[in-house]
Write a structure and sequence with these properties.
The protein is built from 17 helices and seven strands. The chain has two domains: 21-433, Up-down Bundle (Growth Hormone, Chain: A); 451-493 and 560-581, no CATH class. The strands form three sheets. The chain has a three-stranded antiparallel beta sheet, with no helix packed on it. The chain has a two-stranded parallel sheet with strand order 4-7. The chain is mainly alpha-helical. The chain is globular.
Amino acid sequence: MLLIRNTIRGAMSRIMEKTRKLPWRGILALIGGFFIQLTLGSFYSFGNMMTYLTSYMRKNGSPDLTYGDFIIVQSVWGMTQGISMPLSGFIIRFVGVRPAMFIGCTLFSLGTAATYFTLNQSVWMVAFTYGFVSAFGQGIALIPTMTIGMRWFPERKGMAMGVVVGGFGGGAFIFNQIQTAILNPNNIAPEGEYFTDPELLDRVPRLMLILGGIYLTIQMIACSLVTEPHLDRELVPQVTIIYYRQAVKTRDFYLLWITRFCAVLITQSVSGFYKAFGQTFIADDHFLSFVGAVSSIFNCSGRLFYGLLMDKSNYRAAMMFEMVCLTLLVSSLPLTSYGGRILFGIWIWGVYFTFPGTFSTQPAVTTQAFGHTYGGTIYGFLFTSDIVNNFLVGALSQSLLKYGGWNGMFLCLSVFSLIAFIITLFFPKNPCPENYLQTAKNGAENDSLEKGLISIPGDHENERNTKISLALGDNIIQTDDDSVHSLKTPINVDTPTSIKTPTSNTPSSVDTPSSVDAPSSVDNHSTVDTPPSVNTHSSVNTPISVKTPASVNTPTSVNNPTSLYTYTPIPADNIVAVVKC
């Protein structure tokens, strides 16, 4: 008995020790981010909602409205994301992370509730409230939940992304059921392609108010769980963080852009038309809603799967595997009409498990490639591809369905996943900010680093003075425009005692008092409190003040320096984020 008791005590002690080491605030941040994205991802139930909203509007003022016309709402949503996501990074930096989440969530919920009023007007008004306003709020709220999760777990970015964006994929599972339970509890089948039951259609506007209230309640609670981590200086590795204006000039940014373009084109098309396609051979609305609800489980789990796959391998391997599977599934989707409802459900679930891999791996690889500070903003710029592909979905869907039918449409979509596979072949296996670092501009020489004079991008023609903070222990430099760079090798900060300039008007003697805190090498190791006098003739009038003897060579002259900077240590609180190569 004593042995058993000691074993149990030892096990409990180890469990308690591990529990104390868990980053509980980080776990709560992931949970809060999950629930925020759960509500934001309810737009994946658009395929289910479109059948009800289109049918309602056909009865109330728009009798000629078709699914091909109503898809413009989804297109406006996607194009708004393409515009708002790049802006969201600047909005977040202006108002702060948590206020941005609150503002974005509120806009998202209000846009849904406001559709109660626009349903009786026109499809363009619905596109404004349910498409533009909601998508703009979503764009602001999305980025903080993703970047904060990765900052809490920098070594498990794929896992953190999988958990948070898994909520985005799982939203349709819950809200598909809520929508169908409120609107069609008796499983009334549509007449042809559209619903005509008056009692069912009369419930549609009230549903928008109910959804808006549910969204806002969940979001406000979840926002209170999301907090930012405090940086531990001991965990700061050597880093390079790329400024967003540099990132958009790189080849790899556009490889990611094209890949997202192809993936989202397939995502929007399948999620928007899967139910309309299923209704051509399945006359069971509850079953189709069930397929949509369960597909969101696969959407959620697929994000986590591909995030873990990226952690175990790399982004390129995970994305290539995803695109091979997606090509096979989408190209063969029309064949499910011969296999009945079971085969249809399996294929839709397979597609929903596969395409979300893009949405969990790309935020992580963007941060891995370009750094944490602007990783969220750079990822937002990838959403500009949504402007193009959502325009194509809205403009070409009618033509594809008219001339190619469902077979032509899905075969055309599978070509885009094949293109994404080929593009991904050219993406680096292990991207790192060091690959994109530019240490000089306008002809500045890299050998200036060896002299302790650092050249960074700046407006040298206008003689802009740029102040650099230098953390010698971590080889991190931070400029006044918040861009952070790292040095591949440690740099010895030498104190110049003479500066020679080529101009003829330079006075022969310039007395420049300075306080030298950095250790310097002197012939005798005496300590004198009087600061040195430095002139252009290298004449030292008073000894240099030395706090600790050290062997650091002090050059007596520096010819034609590019710029002269002041060096100060970076406080730990000022290092915004890090990424390890």
